[in-house]
Protein backbone atom coordinates (compact mmCIF):
# COMPACT_ATOMS: atom_id res chain seq x y z
CA UNK A 1 0.00 0.00 0.00
CA UNK A 2 1.48 3.37 -0.94
CA UNK A 3 2.11 6.01 1.69
CA UNK A 4 1.05 9.60 1.82
CA UNK A 5 -2.24 11.44 1.58
CA UNK A 6 -3.88 8.96 -0.82
CA UNK A 7 -3.11 6.00 1.44
CA UNK A 8 -4.35 7.92 4.49
CA UNK A 9 -7.58 8.91 2.72
CA UNK A 10 -8.21 5.29 1.67
CA UNK A 11 -7.45 4.05 5.17
CA UNK A 12 -9.90 6.64 6.53
CA UNK A 13 -12.63 5.30 4.22
CA UNK A 14 -11.95 1.78 5.52
CA UNK A 15 -12.05 2.97 9.15
CA UNK A 16 -15.31 4.88 8.67
CA UNK A 17 -16.96 1.94 6.86
CA UNK A 18 -15.92 -0.44 9.64
CA UNK A 19 -17.23 1.92 12.35
CA UNK A 20 -20.56 2.33 10.57
CA UNK A 21 -20.81 -1.43 10.15
CA UNK A 22 -20.34 -1.80 13.93
CA UNK A 23 -23.12 0.74 14.58
CA UNK A 24 -20.70 3.20 16.21
CA UNK A 25 -22.47 6.43 17.16
CA UNK A 26 -21.64 10.12 16.66
CA UNK A 27 -18.77 9.48 14.24
CA UNK A 28 -16.55 12.56 13.87
CA UNK A 29 -13.44 12.68 11.69
CA UNK A 30 -10.96 15.54 12.04
CA UNK A 31 -8.22 16.29 9.53
CA UNK A 32 -5.09 16.86 11.64
CA UNK A 33 -2.55 16.74 8.79
CA UNK A 34 -0.19 19.66 9.28
CA UNK A 35 -1.53 20.26 12.82
CA UNK A 36 0.12 17.26 14.39
CA UNK A 37 2.89 14.78 13.75
CA UNK A 38 0.59 12.13 15.25
CA UNK A 39 -1.14 11.36 11.95
CA UNK A 40 -3.36 12.69 9.19
CA UNK A 41 -6.79 12.05 10.69
CA UNK A 42 -8.38 11.65 14.08
CA UNK A 43 -11.68 9.80 14.33
CA UNK A 44 -13.82 9.97 17.46
CA UNK A 45 -16.83 7.70 17.99
CA UNK A 46 -19.07 6.44 20.75
CA UNK A 47 -20.27 3.00 21.71
CA UNK A 48 -23.37 2.48 23.84
CA UNK A 49 -21.65 0.39 26.53
CA UNK A 50 -18.28 -1.10 27.49
CA UNK A 51 -19.18 -4.21 25.50
CA UNK A 52 -20.13 -2.14 22.42
CA UNK A 53 -16.90 -0.08 22.65
CA UNK A 54 -14.89 -3.30 22.79
CA UNK A 55 -16.84 -4.87 19.89
CA UNK A 56 -16.40 -1.75 17.71
CA UNK A 57 -12.66 -1.76 18.44
CA UNK A 58 -12.17 -5.48 17.79
CA UNK A 59 -14.15 -5.28 14.53
CA UNK A 60 -12.05 -2.31 13.37
CA UNK A 61 -8.78 -4.08 14.23
CA UNK A 62 -9.94 -7.16 12.29
CA UNK A 63 -10.86 -5.02 9.26
CA UNK A 64 -7.51 -3.21 9.41
CA UNK A 65 -5.67 -6.52 9.55
CA UNK A 66 -7.67 -7.85 6.57
CA UNK A 67 -6.52 -4.79 4.56
CA UNK A 68 -2.87 -5.21 5.51
CA UNK A 69 -2.94 -2.46 8.15
CA UNK A 70 -2.69 -4.84 11.09
CA UNK A 71 0.19 -3.16 12.91
CA UNK A 72 -2.05 -0.69 14.77
CA UNK A 73 -1.22 0.09 18.40
CA UNK A 74 -4.15 -0.39 20.75
CA UNK A 75 -4.72 0.82 24.30
CA UNK A 76 -7.67 0.56 26.67
CA UNK A 77 -9.29 -2.59 25.26
CA UNK A 78 -9.43 -4.24 28.69
CA UNK A 79 -11.86 -1.75 30.25
CA UNK A 80 -13.91 -0.66 27.24
CA UNK A 81 -14.29 2.93 28.48
CA UNK A 82 -11.91 4.54 25.99
CA UNK A 83 -10.04 2.55 23.36
CA UNK A 84 -7.33 4.23 21.31
CA UNK A 85 -6.33 2.62 18.01
CA UNK A 86 -3.33 4.19 16.26
CA UNK A 87 -2.74 3.05 12.67
CA UNK A 88 0.03 5.60 12.04
CA UNK A 89 -2.03 7.70 9.63
CA UNK A 90 -5.25 7.60 11.64
CA UNK A 91 -5.91 7.77 15.36
CA UNK A 92 -9.27 6.34 16.38
CA UNK A 93 -10.82 7.02 19.79
CA UNK A 94 -13.77 4.79 20.75
CA UNK A 95 -15.53 6.09 23.87
CA UNK A 96 -18.47 5.35 26.09
CA UNK A 97 -20.62 8.54 25.80
CA UNK A 98 -19.97 9.87 29.32
CA UNK A 99 -16.20 9.34 28.99
CA UNK A 100 -16.23 11.11 25.60
CA UNK A 101 -18.16 14.02 27.05
CA UNK A 102 -15.73 14.31 29.98
CA UNK A 103 -12.57 14.47 27.80
CA UNK A 104 -14.19 16.35 24.89
CA UNK A 105 -11.16 15.90 22.64
CA UNK A 106 -13.01 17.01 19.49
CA UNK A 107 -13.38 20.48 20.98
CA UNK A 108 -9.70 20.57 21.88
CA UNK A 109 -8.67 19.75 18.30
CA UNK A 110 -11.20 22.12 16.77
CA UNK A 111 -9.97 25.06 18.88
CA UNK A 112 -7.81 27.73 17.21
CA UNK A 113 -4.10 27.25 17.63
CA UNK A 114 -3.11 28.46 21.08
CA UNK A 115 0.20 29.87 19.83
CA UNK A 116 -1.69 32.25 17.53
CA UNK A 117 -3.45 33.75 20.55
CA UNK A 118 -0.22 34.20 22.46
CA UNK A 119 1.47 36.42 19.86
Task: Please characterize this protein's 3D structure.
With 119 residues, the protein is of the alpha+beta class. The protein has one domain (5-118): Beta Polymerase, domain 2, CATH 3.30.460.10. The protein contains five helices and five strands; from the N terminus they run αββαβββααα. The chain has helices at 5-21, 50-66, 97-103, 105-110, 114-118, and strands spanning 25-31, 41-46, 73-75, 82-86, 90-95. A five-stranded mixed sheet has the order 1-2-5-4-3. Strand 4 and strand 5 (90-95) form a beta hairpin. Helix 1 crosses helix 2 (50-66). It is globular and about 35 Å long. The chain starts with a helix and ends with a helix. Residues 113-119 have low confidence and may be disordered.
What is the CATH architecture descriptor?
Answer: 2-Layer Sandwich
Instruction: Determine the number of helices (DSSP H or I, runs of at least 4 residues).
Output: 5
Radius of gyration: 14 Å
Stated plainly, the CATH topology is called Beta Polymerase, domain 2
Largest beta sheet, briefly?
Answer: 5 strands, mixed
What is the succession of H and E elements? HEEHEEEHHH
Report strand %.
15-25%
Separation of termini? 42 Å
Mean pLDDT: 88
- Classify the secondary structure makeup into a structural class: alpha+beta
Helix content: 40-55%
Shape: globular
What do we call the CATH homologous superfamily? Beta Polymerase, domain 2
Amino acid sequence: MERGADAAARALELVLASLEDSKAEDIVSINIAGKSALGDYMVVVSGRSNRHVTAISEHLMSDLKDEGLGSARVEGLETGDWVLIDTGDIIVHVFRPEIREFYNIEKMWAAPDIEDRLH
